[in-house]
Amino acid sequence: MYLKPEPPTPQPARPGADICPHRSGHRTAALALPTVVMPAPSQFLDAEDRALCQRVADQVTADAKWYSTSIDKHVLASTILSLFQHGVVNEANLLAHVRARRHDFTKKTG
Length: 110
Hints:
two-stranded antiparallel sheet, 39% helix
């Protein structure tokens, strides 16, 4: 499941931050540093989910060697993760969906 990150909350300015250190009494605009918002932990795969996706990738790679095809591994990984994020979390179903999209990430070599 993909959760949209929350917008950063404004940080209060430090006292005296609007006074320029180079000229006494000269005021500058307060410097607002960007706040880094980390995604919620639920957006990342846990160890079991990574292992499931890796098994599917390994099986598809083994299939490709059997059929003498070359695999674009980045597209394969993207396909697996996209399907997983969209709810195909059963290993057999995920493997079937990936195999059905094999033409997206393979090309004949022989």
